[in-house]
């Protein structure tokens, strides 16, 4: 009669199944079956190296940029002698008792600069006298701007193709008597020392006022 039993043997650190039985001739047979493996343990070494998501260094993952930063614009400084050219245009305020002149301040080069305040304006008057324009913020006719608006003096940036302006005005009579006519103004931009002769259509050197620089 055959007898068969199952057992387990711990062999070399591994669980091994052992099967024994009797053969027809009375000898004993032993069959050893190795325990099934569960897969090799990971060594932590990635295969294929440098793949995305495996911890390898990737381009664009926070490394230092090699691009050149964009240059910053140079700060705009106050206009100085030689940077501004002045010319004049006549203004029509619709009042025959007043004359108006628009002074235009343009850059002489490619650099921008800023102006603030009142230009100095003088003109010839009979008797070899010069009349100095009084500074004022207010006007009965022209205001500071062609749209007749008034604002306090502000810092105005003069850019190539974007000049600044100031309004000059005067009365055409003095106590009922006609005022003389002057065709040349001597204009000094704010905070400068260089005076420029500016030709204009007609300025009467009576009650002459100048308004602040505006855009």
Describe the 3D structure:
The protein is mainly beta and 215 residues long. It folds into 2 domains: 4-34, no CATH class; 79-210, Immunoglobulin-like. It is 0% helix and 42% strand. It has no helices and 17 strands. The chain has strands spanning 4-11, 14-22, 28-34, 77-78, 84-91, 98-107, 113-115, 120-125, 129-132, 134-135, 156-158, 164-171, 173-174, 177-178, 182-188, 196-203, 209-210. The strands form 5 sheets. The chain has a 5-stranded mixed beta sheet with strand order 5-6-12-17-10, with no helix packed on it. Strands 9-8-15-16 form a 4-stranded antiparallel beta sheet, with no helix packed on it. The radius of gyration is 49 Å and the shape is elongated.
Name of the CATH first level of the largest domain:
Mainly Beta
Determine the mean pLDDT: 76
Strand order of the largest sheet: 5-6-12-17-10
Rounded to the nearest angstrom, the distance between the terminal CA atoms is 121 Å
The CATH topology annotation of the largest domain reads as: Immunoglobulin-like
**Hey, roughly how much beta strand do the residues contain?**
35-45%
Instruction: Identify the overall geometry.
Output: elongated
What is the alpha-carbon Rg in Å? Answer: 49 Å
Range of helix content = under 10%
Which structural class best describes the helix and strand composition? mainly beta
Strand segment tally:
17
Protein name: DUF4232 domain-containing protein
Domain DUF4232: 79-201
Region (Disordered): 33-77
Biased composition (Low complexity): 33-45, 66-75
